């Protein structure tokens, strides 16, 4: 009985650590206008304030995960919590943009230590496959729900406090979590002699950062597409070199043969698509709610609250369902459910809250949460205990790439559709060329005009973006439906294939 109590007591501690990292990935999105007014960063500095966290996180995950396999995941998690708390305090009181960029970089170091450690601790603690599926389901609900709840938390804090509160809120949580983590988490090392190939990890780190950087550059106005492509190709080459190095190693840090399993490959693809959707949808919806419907940050956060709430509730259930009905059925069903949610909201006229909108948001959140759970459960059940950290890190790199692609794909599609759908009278088209670049710039330009031109520009921009919102939602539905179909086909072939022997 004591063992059972201790085992389940670990879950809240791990979840709190994960929640800090997940919320910080998105909490800043809604704070950007307030932060910009307070610190006055240049356009380049503002991009680095936002991008440095996911960029470094993606590059550091593999190194941190395999280091946890060597020195112990508890030790790594405790160190990550301490770094995260100190970096949060530094960010909260940043006197200028440069300090905030440095603080966000250290947040990424702390977060990269915590992310793979949390999932690895669950893999090593829960031996029973059904219990592990439930535990990983709860882990996934915290990961997806935390990211989606970031704007809600940010909006609530900004309604009453200084912008630094979005970082300072982490400090008391870390101070509470540290002693409980030290007391409750298992302290065993997985492998005293586990290899840690530093040159190879530096190669992988540089490669992953290069790929993620190139993806993010596609959404930045004025960025050179040729430079982004060159950096992306160089990064991909370094990742390929790292994989070749691992394949030739006598004792590799990660057994690459695991990823030849179609179920693992589909799980990683499903996890990446889920993150593309949740991050991209949040980017799209936050602009629709604040710029088109003119809601405050708090009102916008509350309007989208059904998405993270549904994710929180669906993810633990999906773990049990995957164990009972199989990964293929749960992943495909979850992706199809999210696709149906996007179709529902795409067909709605923008405006007041409606039952159909709430149901659509619930379907999107529940589907994404369940898909992430099914993917995580499949990947971690395949991982040998001594490689849990490395395998967890690979999955979380897929999440980070998905997040970057979500911003890149949704952002690019939003820009293209908005520019094509915006209709202005010829004289105003010439007078306010900035209006065609984005809805934010259009509304700023409208503020500088006299009536009735100001109303004409603002109305045209809001109308164009509403149509953009609907069009991008349909594209998201199509992407989810195609991924669901691919999962059914690929995994059906695997089941139908003759077994050796």
From TrEMBL:
Its main location: membrane. Residues 10-495 form the Major facilitator superfamily (MFS) profile domain. It is a multi-pass membrane protein. It comes from the Bacteria. The chain crosses the membrane at residues 46-64, 76-95, 101-122, 134-157, 163-184, 196-214, 226-243, 264-285, 305-322, 329-348, 354-376, 397-418, 472-492. GO terms for molecular function: transmembrane transporter activity. InterPro entries: MFS (IPR011701), MFS_dom (IPR020846), MFS_trans_sf (IPR036259). GO terms for cellular component: plasma membrane. Keywords: Cell membrane, Membrane, Transmembrane, Transmembrane helix, Transport. The keyword Transit peptide does not apply. It is found in: Cell membrane. Pfam families: MFS_1. SUPFAM superfamilies: MFS general substrate transporter (SSF103473). The keyword Transmembrane helix applies. This is Major facilitator superfamily (MFS) profile domain-containing protein. It comes from Inquilinus limosus.
């Amino acid at each position: 009985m004591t063992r059972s109590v201790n085992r389940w007591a670990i879950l809240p501690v791990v979840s709190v650590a994960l929640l800090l990292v997940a919320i910080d990935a998105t909490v800043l999105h809604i704070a950007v206008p307030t932060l910009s007014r307070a610190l006055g960063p240049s356009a380049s500095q503002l991009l680095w304030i936002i991008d440095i966290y996911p960029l470094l996180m993606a590059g550091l995950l593999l190194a941190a995960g395999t280091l946890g396999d060597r020195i112990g995941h508890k030790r790594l998690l405790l160190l990550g919590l301490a770094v995260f708390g100190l970096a949060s305090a530094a960010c909260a009181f940043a006197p200028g943009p440069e300090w905030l960029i440095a603080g966000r970089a250290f947040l990424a170091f702390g977060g990269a230590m915590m992310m793979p450690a949390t999932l690895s601790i669950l893999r090593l603690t829960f031996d029973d496959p059904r219990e592990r599926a439930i535990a990983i389901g709860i882990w996934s609900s915290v990961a997806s729900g935390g990211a989606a709840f970031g704007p809600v938390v940010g909006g609530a804090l900004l309604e009453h406090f200084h912008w630094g509160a979005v970082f300072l809120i982490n400090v008391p949580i870390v101070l509470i979590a540290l002693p409980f983590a030290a007391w409750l988490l298992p302290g065993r090392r997985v492998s005293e002699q586990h290899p840690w190939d530093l040159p190879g990890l530096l190669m992988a780190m540089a490669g992953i950062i290069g790929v993620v950087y190139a993806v993010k550059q596609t959404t930045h106005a004025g960025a050179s597409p040729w430079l982004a492509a060159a950096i992306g190709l160089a990064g991909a080459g370094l990742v390929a070199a790292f994989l070749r190095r691992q394949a030739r190693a006598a004792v590799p840090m990660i057994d690459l043969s695991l990823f030849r399993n179609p179920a693992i490959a589909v799980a990683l693809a499903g996890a990446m698509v889920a993150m593309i959707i949740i991050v991209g949808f949040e980017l799209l919806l936050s602009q629709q709610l604040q710029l088109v419907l003119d809601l405050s940050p708090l009102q916008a956060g509350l309007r989208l609250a059904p998405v993270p709430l549904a994710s929180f509730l669906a993810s633990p259930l999906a773990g049990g369902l995957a164990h009972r009905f199989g990964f293929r059925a749960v992943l495909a069903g979850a992706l199809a459910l999210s696709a149906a949610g996007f179709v529902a909201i795409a067909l709605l006229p923008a405006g007041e809250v409606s039952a159909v909108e709430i149901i659509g948001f619930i379907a999107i959140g529940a589907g994404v949460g369940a898909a992430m759970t099914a993917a995580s459960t499949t990947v971690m059940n395949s991982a040998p205990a001594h490689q849990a950290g490395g395998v967890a890190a690979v999955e979380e790199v897929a999440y980070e790439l998905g997040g970057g692609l979500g911003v890149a794909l949704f952002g690019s599609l939003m820009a293209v559709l908005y520019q094509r759908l915006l209709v202005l009278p010829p004289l105003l088209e010439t007078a306010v060329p900035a209006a065609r670049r984005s809805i934010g710039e259009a509304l700023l330009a409208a503020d500088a005009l006299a009536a009735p031109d100001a109303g004409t520009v603002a109305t045209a921009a809001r109308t164009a973006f509403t149509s953009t919102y609907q069009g991008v939602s349909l594209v998201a539905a199509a992407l989810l439906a195609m991924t669901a179909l691919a999962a059914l086909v690929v995994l059906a072939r695997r089941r139908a294939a003759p077994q050796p022997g």
